[in-house]
Design goal:
The protein is mostly helical. It is 75% helix and 0% strand.
Amino acid sequence: MLKVTDRGRAALQEWLGDPEFVPVEARERGILKLWFGGQPDVLAPVQVDEHRRTLRSYEELADEVGELLTPGQREALEFGIRYERMMVDFWAWVRQREDRTSTDS
């Protein structure tokens, strides 16, 4: 059985109490592929489907065990849900934009 030492507990409390903002480094492969010239019409459909799948799994988790989570755990799960919704919206926009720009040519 693993135990947290007093020193470890103190380090955890110090880390939890530190409000410092550290910018997120987003490393979404699909976004990187867009940046470097990936084809939106190839990327967007797969990205929308995968982010929808992940969103459904997070929403199911919230429905199944949401009331058992601590407030912080539920908030972290809500972040995941909101992030996946944003990614679905973004990739749907990319797909729509690609359809629109390809018909303008």
